[in-house]
Write the structure tokens for this entry.
Amino acid sequence: MARCGSEAFQLGHLHKNAQSVKSIQTTIPYFGIIYCRKGIFCNTKALTSFTSTPGLCPVEMENSMSRPFAEISFTPSVRATQARNGSAEGYAKFLAGATQEDLISPVEASFIAQRDGFYQATVSETGWPYVQFRGGPAGFLKVLDERTLAYADFRGNRQYLSAGNLQNNDRVSLILMDYPNRRRLKIWGRAKLVDGADDPALMQHLSDPNYRGHPERAIVIKLEAMDWNCTQHIPQRLTLEEFEEYMAPLRDELAELKARNADQKDKPGQQR
């Protein structure tokens, strides 16, 4: 069930006769846009991954917001701005039923395991935020337990901006994107830098021998809060690998048509 403000709609049974989940994948983002219009809030605390089983769509969206997220994000200035713009009352209703803590469930763990990158923000000693894209093989950001994430910090341009910022301020924020399905998970936590020589077992667990990157250290993040939010304004994009999934059937059909045409040409006396 997905609920936005006072409106609710059921997901997962809209296409019982669908031959492919692709039709469902196409439909759901539009519901997100329709129901997350101005003045109506849409928050997805639990959003399962699309299944590859034809005809099924086990997507579940719950009307839920965690109190840790609100305590971190809804500062007095933010609440004052919400009040001026008419959204304070709506968010107050969400917070009335807020969960008391955030734990990484199998839903979030599955979503995280599929990502091959994320945006990470740290804060410098001068108070300036620094945002960068961290990339790697799919699943390089690993869930160690329901409160802990970690990833191998690969050598880059050796400016060490994030690593340096975390020495002074351990607060970190991540945004994980699923552009094809227009989903977004936001994570707040406190990060610790672990040198590879200090914990070889952890480094081995986080490293992928098939990936070209050289891991210098581990970044271990203790979860403080997380939040799913609505699909509105997220562009739908595909990587080359994801696009290939859509192109493969077309290529197969084209090859079949070419074979038929060649067969027709080989038949003597075939009319054109």
Observations:
- Residues 1-63 have pLDDT under 50 and may be disordered.
- The two ends are 56 Å apart (CA to CA).
- The beta strands are 2-4, 7-9, 117-123, 129-135, 142-145, 148-154, 171-178, 183-195, 215-228.
